[in-house]
């Protein structure tokens, strides 16, 4: 059957390690190019692509599910010059309701590494904006994304899911204040970039810290972030020497190993005249060697430690997440209803086209002989049209009405099968 | 006079209770009442010392009971001044019980009769005693702040901020105030030692006589000098500074009380029964 399906392919922090995610990540410019390429694929009707440090997701609408999935996979592989086999195991493919559910959960931050962190929604919004500019989103994705934003917002306001993420930055601020007294005038070094880290930096700025230094493996990204925080970018290699002057280090790189080890700090505390150093390690896996915590006047907190600080009730958090899931379930059902109603139109159209095709070919045969006058031929043509309209009237009414027992999709399916519309 | 001491002790004990309640309940009126109680105690305390001074005509630091009274008074005096300059509310939790404890000890030490000695009228002696005692009080508070620092630091370091996390001030503030205490204490101790030398010269004809108390005072002075030196040159701060402040105070206590138990010397008589 050729009914349009929503398909979502992706990898995220749960299915793939950072090495793989890195390989197939799309920058903003690459996303634009990718959208244009994918749009020209005959199997893909609508497409949206978004890529963050924790996930790469391709959302598309197609008539031919399997072909489209293959196309998308091949595209990811070609675009990033990575063999399909390398990421295939980490790839998840959701179709229909599952795809809808997935995008809802992602946007509501139920699927995030730090459940409830607010930035993912902004990132999806940006991706959708790009897609609308490139005109790669159509009726279905437009509707789906608007619904997604609505649901995400609703979950944020109706559940306490957002409190959790915010409270981690809050805990970091509280700790900072207990170490430094006042955060005013303290120097901050941000290593890497991540949703949570940026949030923490924003909180620190609100406490009027002096200067934000940004180090990143890609210098351009560092410059970009530094601009955003009104700070200055430094080269990744300069990072160690910067430790002499900074007070708070927030690290959130995707590095699989520690990027700051105890030996890096050797002699540094003496140079710093033993002024305290506060490391906030938001990365998973960790960036900061916990051994550093054993040096005097250094304090290393990873994300679990910060969670511990707020003494949060885990049951509370689970209950909030559960509430969020319930809202998602409800939204998926609603979306399915809309989606089905939308599909009546193409079915009726296809049905009409089929009847008209039969009528046309029969008319052709009948009128070929030329035994009828011009006026008669016109009458026959008119009568054929009227017949088609009359025949289609009741099925159209039934399909469009909401009274279908056993769900509209079943009726649509039967209609398509009876008239062999999918052949 | 006896009654005045009892009232004083009572005020100090109530103040200590107020500060303890503040630690647990964190209500500002508790902290304020702790402060005013200690102030009331201090006023009574001063009155009792002054009346003793007037009655005997000598500076009352002749025997253990009197030196302890002066010590307690010095701590209270220093604490009150310090508290009004630095808003380290929680400090009373250490100071108030300490003063109360000293005063309880005072009331337990037998009040033996004192022989009249002319030395207690000298200006040099009075400045020596007051400077040294207030200096010691500053070191005592530095020690208390050091303990608070270690408590707070331990919680933060082990990533298990518990009871004290919210109740104690920041590490930076504890470190800075502890440092201030040590600077004040060191300045006064230096001044006290100098006046002591001058006084010794006028009485015994020499500045330094290898009296055990003198030697240990010298050790204490050197210890704090080293502590300050390290801080100024390589930046000894935080945990290490806090530990050193505690050790320093232990040495000081030994100089103040211990020396008299183990050694004999011309200071001995002032701190014996």
Q: What would you call the structural class of chain A?
A: alpha/beta
What radius of gyration of chain A results from the CA coordinates? 29 Å
Q: Can you count the helices of chain B?
A: 9
By DSSP (H or I, 4+ residues per run), the number of helices of chain A equals 16
Poorly predicted runs of 5 or more residues of chain B: none
CATH C-level class of the largest domain in chain A is Alpha Beta
Quaternary class: heterodimer
Question: Beta-strand level of the residues of chain B, as a percent range?
Answer: under 5%
What's the pLDDT, averaged over the residues of chain B? 85
Question: How would you characterize the largest beta sheet of chain B?
Answer: none
Give the end-to-end Cα distance of chain A, rounded to a whole number of Å: 8 Å
Reported CATH architecture of the largest domain in chain A: 2-Layer Sandwich
Radius of gyration of chain B: 19 Å
Q: What sequence of helices (H) and strands (E) makes up the elements of chain B?
A: HHHHHHHHH
Count of domains of chain B: 2
Order of helices and strands of chain A: EHHEEHHEHHHHEHEHEHEHEEHHHH
The count of β-strands of chain A is: 10
Class per helix and strand makeup of chain B: mainly alpha
Give a brief outline of the structure.
Chain A is of the alpha/beta class. Chain A has helices at 18-23, 28-39, 65-80, 84-88, 97-107, 119-133, 139-158, 161-180, 195-206, 219-229, 239-242, 268-271, 303-309, 314-368, 374-400, 408-418, and strands at 5-12, 44-51, 55-62, 92-95, 187-192, 211-216, 232-235, 248-252, 277-281, 298-302.
């Amino acid at each position: 059957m050729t009914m349009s399906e929503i398909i979502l392919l992706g990898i995220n922090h749960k299915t793939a390690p950072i090495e793989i995610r890195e390989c197939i990540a799309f920058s903003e410019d690459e996303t634009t190019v990718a959208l244009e390429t994918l749009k020209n694929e005959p199997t893909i009707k609508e497409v949206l692509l978004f890529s963050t440090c924790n996930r790469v997701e391709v959302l598309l609408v197609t008539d031919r599910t399997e072909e489209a999935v293959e196309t998308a996979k091949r595209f990811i592989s070609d675009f990033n010059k990575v063999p399909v086999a390398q990421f295939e195991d980490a790839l998840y493919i959701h179709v229909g309701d599952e795809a809808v559910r997935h995008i809802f959960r992602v946007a509501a931050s139920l699927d995030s590494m730090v459940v409830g962190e607010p930035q993912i929604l902004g990132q999806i919004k940006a991706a959708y904006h790009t897609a609308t500019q490139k005109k790669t989103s159509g009726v279905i994705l437009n509707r789906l994304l608007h619904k997604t934003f609505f649901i995400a917002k609703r979950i944020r306001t109706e559940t306490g899911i957002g409190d959790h993420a915010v409270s981690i930055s809050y805990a970091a601020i509280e700790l900072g204040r207990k170490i430094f007294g006042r955060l005013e005038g303290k120097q901050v070094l941000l290593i890497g970039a991540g949703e949570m880290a940026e949030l923490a930096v924003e909180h620190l700025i609100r406490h009027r810290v002096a200067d934000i230094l940004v180090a990143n493996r890609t210098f351009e990204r560092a410059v970009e972030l530094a601009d955003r925080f009104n700070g200055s970018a430094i080269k990744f290699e300069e990072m160690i020497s910067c430790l002499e002057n900074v007070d708070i280090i927030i690290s959130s790189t995707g590095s699989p190993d520690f990027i700051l080890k105890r030996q890096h700090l050797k002699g540094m505390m003496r140079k710093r005249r033993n002024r305290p150093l506060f490391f906030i390690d938001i990365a998973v896996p960790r960036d900061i060697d916990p051994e550093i915590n054993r040096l005097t006047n250094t304090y290393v907190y990873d994300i679990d430690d910060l969670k511990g600080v707020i003494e949060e009730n885990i049951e509370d958090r689970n209950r909030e997440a559960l509430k969020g899931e319930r809202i998602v379930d409800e939204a998926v059902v609603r979306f399915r209803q809309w989606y089905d109603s939308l599909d009546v139109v193409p079915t009726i159209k296809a049905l009409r086209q089929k009847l008209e095709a039969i009528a046309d070919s029969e008319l052709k045969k009948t009128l070929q002989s030329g035994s009828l006058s011009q006026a008669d031929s016109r009458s026959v043509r008119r009568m054929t049209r009227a017949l088609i309209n009359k025949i289609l009237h009741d099925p159209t009414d039934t399909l469009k009405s909401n009274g279908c027992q056993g769900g509209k999709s079943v009726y649509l399916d039967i209609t398509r099968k009876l008239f062999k519309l999918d052949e | 006079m006896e009654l005045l001491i009892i009232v004083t002790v009572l005020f100090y004990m109530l103040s200590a209770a107020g500060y303890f309640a503040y630690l647990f309940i964190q209500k500002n009126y508790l902290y304020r009442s702790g402060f005013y109680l200690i102030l009331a105690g201090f006023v009574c305390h001063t009155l009792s010392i002054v009346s003793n001074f007037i009655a005997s005509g000598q500076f009352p630091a002749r025997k253990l009971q009197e030196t302890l009274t002066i010590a307690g008074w010095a701590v209270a005096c220093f604490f009150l001044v310090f508290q009004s300059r630095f808003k380290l509310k929680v400090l009373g939790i250490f100071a108030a019980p300490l003063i109360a404890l000293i005063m309880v000890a005072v009331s337990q030490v037998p009040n033996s009769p004192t022989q009249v000695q002319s030395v207690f009228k000298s200006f040099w002696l009075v400045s020596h005693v007051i400077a040294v005692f207030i200096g010691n009080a500053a070191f005592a508070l530095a020690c208390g702040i050091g303990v608070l620092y270690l408590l707070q630091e331990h919680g933060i370091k082990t990533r298990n901020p518990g009871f004290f996390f919210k109740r104690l001030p920041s590490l930076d503030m504890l470190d800075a105030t502890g440092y201030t205490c040590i600077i004040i204490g060191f300045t006064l101790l230096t001044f006290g030692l100098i006046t002591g030398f001058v006084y010794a010269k006028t009485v015994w004809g020499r500045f330094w006589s290898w009296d055990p108390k003198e030697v240990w005072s010298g050790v204490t002075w050197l210890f704090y000098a080293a502590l300050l030196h390290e801080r100024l040159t390589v930046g000894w701060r935080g945990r290490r500074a806090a530990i050193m402040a505690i050790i320093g105070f232990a040495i000081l206590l030994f100089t103040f009380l211990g020396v008299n138990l183990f050694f004999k010397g011309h200071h001995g008589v002032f701190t014996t029964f």
